Amino acid sequence: MPTILQQAMSLLVGEQPQRQAVSQPRPLKTLTDRQLIKLESEIGRTLFGAIPKGHTREFFCLDDDTWIWHEKWRENGQDKEQTVRYEVHSNGILKVEDSGKNYTMLKGQELMNLEVATRMYHERVMREIYKRDPQTGALLTAEPGLVAHHA
Could you say which of 64, 100, 110, 137 has the lowest number of CB atoms within 10 Å? Predict the structure, then answer.
């Protein structure tokens, strides 16, 4: 059975069949989970400031309880990479690093930074990708002269 990291990475880079139609119409319904996560990560990767030259970064919400941060870069001629999984639990946020070898509960400034980032992510993803109001989920109305996106 694949790990959460393997599932997340396969959504980013692997092939996946298109989603089945759901009973309610929804925006972007022809995109796969992987394609949607890639779109969302384009926003997520920018939330923490400039990405250093030669680095790639991904930050996205995998499911209701899991956030993924992944960064790759080259240092001293060697490829480096770091993946952090943030798991939402009833007693706090668990930070899982190094393929599950290091576990810590978030606290202090790191917890506040993640909270701000996830709020910004939600706000921007809802508005920019799904064309929905982040508070109500209602379809955003078009500005005069623009065509509205319909679900």
Answer: 64
**pLDDT of 20-74, one tens digit each?**
333 444 556 788 889 999 999 999 999 988 999 999 999 999 999 999 999 999 9
pTM: 0.73
**C-alpha closest to that of 106 among 88, 93, 87, 89:** 93
Distance of alpha carbon 88 from the chain centroid:
14
Return phi, psi of residue 47, to 5°. Answer: -75, -15
Each domain of the chain, given as residue ranges in start order, spans 4-129
The alpha carbon of 68 is separated from its chain's Cα centroid by a whole number of angstroms, namely: 7
